[in-house]
Write a structure and sequence with these properties.
Strand content: 25-35%
Mean pLDDT: 92
Radius of gyration: 18 Å
GO molecular function, one term: transferase activity
Number of helices: 7
Protein name: Glutamine amidotransferase
Organism: Asanoa ferruginea
Keywords: Glutamine amidotransferase, Transferase
Shape: globular
InterPro entries: EgtC-like (IPR026869), Gamma-glu_amide_hydrolase (IPR052373), GATase_2_dom (IPR017932), Ntn_hydrolases_N (IPR029055)
Helix content: 10-25%
CATH superfamily: Aminohydrolase, N-terminal nucleophile (Ntn) domain
């Protein structure tokens, strides 16, 4: 499917995570070890919030249909953009077209959304799912993916007010719609969404065999465990990172997100709980 990462903490250059680690996201675009495919070359995207945010400022975004490893503009931007909160995604299409409007992260106002996984037999359910989108939101849909449909269903169900309930209702609606079509185990997802201050991440599948997802341990704990690692002194206190698969650094730096759960990341803290579709 896809590989993605979400970062929250003191401002850092994007290339410090996209390119510099041994098994960086760009390396994963060619050599994924835990995904459904080894190569994720059907486009890419980054979304970031400014260091000095203007009230209600929307995030910057850059997406392209080239493989991430060969896009020189991405490398140049990643070297020069610093951000306290950013998303990055490399895509492996599950059947929809390779076009810019189908590349993650998707955006609505201040919100960003990215997804790894699929809605099984989406083409059979697409009409029913999209007819449930709020008519006021429907004109904003630009692409043809199941991922963007999930975003607009979540917005319809109240993402801006209560993200967890909105995503639970979205998944519950997709599963109910799938049942009416005789489709089993329709949802496979790891999802990240943010409004620029907090990050919500979800790991769930109808078959309870979800794609991999990991979060970084507290950097202070890692410094105590590995006082010999100079690089840990460069990581800002309170930094949090969520990834589809670890970045090839210390084996104990990342912890797996539990099956059927969600996490809220805010100001260097995280809260984890069960995820239950409604």
């Amino acid at each position: 499917m896809c590989r993605w990462l979400a970062y929250s903490g003191s401002p850092i250059p994007l290339d410090s995570l996209l390119y510099k680690p041994k098994h960086s996201l760009i390396d994963q675009s060619q050599h994924a070890e835990m995904g459904a495919e080894t190569t994720n070359g059907d486009g890419f995207g980054i979304g970031w919030y400014p260091v000095d945010p203007v009230e209600k400022a929307t995030p910057g975004r850059f997406r392209g249909i080239l493989p991430a490893w060969s896009d020189r503009n991405l490398r140049d931007l990643a070297e020069h953009i610093r951000s306290p909160l950013f998303f990055a995604h490399v895509r492996a299409s599950s059947g929809t077209a390779v076009q810019e409007s189908n590349c993650h992260p998707f955006q609505h106002e201040r919100w960003l959304w990215m997804h790894n996984g699929s809605v099984r037999d989406f083409a059979r359910m697409r009409r029913d799912l999209l007819l449930a989108v709020d008519p006021a939101l429907y004109p904003d849909i630009q692409g043809t993916t199941d991922s963007e449909a999930l975003l607009y269903l979540a917005l319809t169900y109240g993402l801006r007010d209560d993200p967890v309930t909105a995503v639970e209702r979205t998944v519950g609606f997709v599963e109910a719609t799938a049942a009416s079509h005789g489709i089993q185990d329709p949802v496979q997802m790891t999802v990240a969404t943010t409004e620029g201050e907090r990050i919500w991440v979800f790991r769930y599948s109808s078959a309870h065999q979800s794609r991999t997802l990991f979060y970084s341990r507290d950097v202070n704990d890692l410094r105590q465990l590995h006082p010999e690692v100079e690089a840990l002194r460069q990581i800002p206190d309170g930094a949090r990172l969520v990834v589809s698969e670890p970045l090839g650094v210390m084996p104990d730096a990342f912890v797996e997100v539990p099956e059927s759960s969600y996490s809220l990341i805010y100001q260097g803290q995280d809260k984890m709980s069960d995820f239950n579709p409604r």
